[in-house]
Amino acid sequence: xxxxxTFALLLLVALLGLSFALMNxxxxxxxxxxxxxxxxxxxxxxxxxxxxxxxxxxxxxxIVLSQKRELARLRKSAKITEQEVANLRALPLKDTH
Length: 97
What we know:
single chain; two-stranded antiparallel sheet
């Protein structure tokens, strides 16, 4: 059931993207530092979205990597603490009475 819903959603997104491309097929001139480029508006928008998503992923990678390092450090600390507790529980009780 989950596969059918996923397939239906992907098909819907593909159809929306196709209709967007067909409705925005007129060429636009893109001026950049090294020259100009003539491309369909839909292609320019999609490329801009892909570049923006890529830059967003790159911007968040520093935070993600620092969080992973912190998680590894905390797991190591928890493992050491669990070993200490297990060792203390294994010690025999000494009754002073």
